[in-house]
Amino acid sequence: YSAATRLSHNKDGGILKYSVLMVCTGNICRSPMAEGLLAHMLPDSLKPLVSVRSAGTQGLHGNMAEPHAIEAASAYGADISEHRARILDTAMVKSANLVLAMERYHLDQINRLRLFFKCKHASLLGLFDPERQTPEIEDPYGDPLGAYQACASEIAACMPGLIDHIQAQMASKSS
Questions:
Q1: Bigger pLDDT: 32 vs 14
Q2: What percent of the chain has pLDDT over 90?
Q3: pLDDT the model gives residue 10
Q4: What does the pLDDT average to over 109-138?
Q5: List 114, 119, 132, 139, catalytic entry
Q6: Which residue is catalytic, options 6, 29, 30, 86?
Q7: Fewer CB within 10 Å of terminal CB in the chain, N or C?
Q8: Is the pTM higher than 0.85?
Q9: Mean pLDDT rounded to a whole number for the chain
């Protein structure tokens, strides 16, 4: 099944939400920045229709976002200071219309959760920036602020293409 067929509908047939799940390793750097940047950069008309969450493949459950990640995201107007890390699980993957990983390793982990079925609505976030040389977004964890700023810049560059994709998916389902 495709992301376009996974939109939630209410009993009258109207679209309720399009759900995006950002995935990285610890859910304290890249995926919270991606979650915050997308939620902030969505056009106002889409904000009530699109839910954005994030999770990590490894266990840092409950941790705050890294201070450098909070600072780097805030430069784009996104406030991730209240973020708390979550561990990726099957229910999160199943409930999302689109799952975006930072690295191929994360895609492997997502597909392991699906057991016998490859997750057809999972992709690498970096693919939404046509200027990128590689679709993977490197982990800035433990690096100085400049690495987080560079990472946030890479994530921000993916947002226009991602927002266009979400709009196209929503339009194709509603027509």
A1: 32
A2: 77
A3: 44
A4: 87
A5: 139
A6: 30
A7: C
A8: yes
A9: 89
Instruction: Tell me the torsion sign for CA atoms 157, 163, 165, 166.
Output: positive
CB 124 within 8 A of CB 99: no
- Catalytic option among 24, 29, 151, 158: 24
Is residue 53 annotated as a catalytic residue, yes or no? Answer: no
Long-range contacts formed by 71-77: CB under 8 A, 24+ apart = 71/145, 71/148, 72/33, 72/145, 72/148, 72/149, 72/151, 72/152, 73/32, 73/33, 73/36, 73/37, 73/152, 75/149, 75/152, 76/37, 76/40, 76/41, 76/152, 76/156, 77/40
Name residue, tokens 């293409």: 161
> Which has the closest alpha carbon to 23: 116, 94, 125, 152?
125
Q: 51-55, 80-84, 112-116: which has the minimum mean pLDDT? A: 112-116
Count CB neighbours of 17 within 10 A: 15
24 in active site: yes
- Alpha-carbon distance of 100 to 110, in angstroms, equals 10
Q: How far apart are CA 82 and CA 150, in angstroms?
A: 22
Based on the residue annotation, tell me whether 44 is a catalytic residue of this protein. no
